[in-house]
Amino acid sequence: MTRILVIEDETEIASFLRRGLSLEGYQVDMAFDGARGLELASTGTYDLIVLDLMLPGVDGLEVARRLRADSNVPIIMLTARDAVRDRVAGLEAGADDYLVKPFAFEELLARIRAQLRRRQSGPAQDVLRFANLTLDTRSRELRVGDRRVELTAKEYDLLELFMRHPNQVLTRDIIYDRVWNYDFGGESNILEVYVRYLRQKLEANGEPRLIHTVRSVGYILREDT
Fold first, then answer.
1. Could you read off the pLDDT tens digit of each residue along the chain, which spans 225 residues?
2. SS3 assignment, position 177
3. Torsion over CA of 95, 100, 101 and 102, rounded to 10 degrees?
4. Taking the model in full, what pTM does it have?
5. What is the per-residue DSSP string for 55-121?
6. I want to staple 100 with a disulfide (CB 3.0 to 4.6 A). Which of 43, 44, 82, 190 is the partner?
């Protein structure tokens, strides 16, 4: 049975989520503050986490950051804040998706199913290679030549997308949809930020640039000849 951890301090919403998700056949555990949520999540037995942003004690952003330090479990963040900067903060902290309160339960279900499909479908190819890059999709380990490189969850997702589509121009809209499952409508520079992070790691020892900007369109993974 699919296990979902809900970290939500509002009693009415928490009860609503527990009841609704249980009726859908999910095994649901509840935490009402960030510290307890981290304690339960540390067991590593959950398939997905629904995380409220505004929590007592350790807030949702910090919970997401700590989870991402050693886990790739999908995180759907819930919040009453709908400003672009708040959505960006949640996604940068490690959330895979973002839902603004009040929300329709059917939409939450659809997003949960989408995240679970992504996780359970499995990659078509276990090891991806391009130029001096080797990406093991089972262990999520990256090597640049002989050098092992640590990636955050979103850095990994972005690089995997590039490596599955080498020498192809990927538009900003495609990248946002595939990596963040969200359309920022041109209001955010989060993509540029993560491309910069990746470049710094891939080029740390003076290696040649592989991720190139295609002005006004997007990015491409290619070797310069």
1. 789 999 999 999 999 999 999 999 999 999 999 999 999 998 878 899 999 999 998 999 999 999 988 788 899 999 887 777 877 888 888 888 888 888 899 999 999 998 888 776 554 568 899 999 999 988 889 999 999 999 988 899 899 999 988 898 888 888 888 888 765 555 568 899 999 999 999 999 999 999 999 998 899 999 986
2. helix
3. -140
4. 0.61
5. -SSS-HHHHHHHHHTT----EEEEES--SHHHHHHHHHHT-SEEEESS--HHHHHHHHHHHHHHHHH
6. 82
